[in-house]
Amino acid sequence: MKVTAEKNEKVANMIFASIYPLYLNRLEKNGRTKEELHKVIEWLTGFDQDALQALIDEKATFGTFFQKAKINPNAHLIKGVVCGYRIEEIEDEFELYRQCRRMEKLIDELARGRKMEKILREEKSSSK
User: Phi, psi (5° rounding) for residue 85?
Assistant: First the structure.
């Protein structure tokens, strides 16, 4: 599927605090914890517990959320399909949408029981 400017705008205006409980619910139903959710969000965005809570309290939009984020340099290693969109094929002009889908992919992997070391992608070093 192709991302449209309208779709990108809609996601940019969604309130992170309204979606966060859905992420948490899904993970807890699958035996994962709030701490694990925060760990993957922090890995992707750089937001620690306090920064994340501040964004939730101020009802930040996804636009603001990702504007303030310091995206992990290995985020490009997150690949695959989420909600019908292949992450690596989302155009650069829709960077915000791509980041949202990357975060959803990490949460999806967590919910499916993938090991944290695999979720928090690291570049393969050639010295091994």
Answer: -110, 130
3-state secondary structure of 85: strand
81 near 94, Cβ under 8 Å? no
Q: How buried is 24 (Cβ within 10 angstroms: 0-12 exposed, 13-18 middle, 19+ buried)?
A: middle
Residues 33/23, Cβ–Cβ less than 8 Å: no
d(Cα 71, Cα 75) in Å, to the nearest integer?
7
pTM exceeding 0.85: yes
In the chain, which stretches have pLDDT less than 70?
123-128
98 and 90 Cβ atoms separated by less than 8 Å: yes
Q: Would you give the end-to-end CA distance of the chain in angstroms?
A: 38
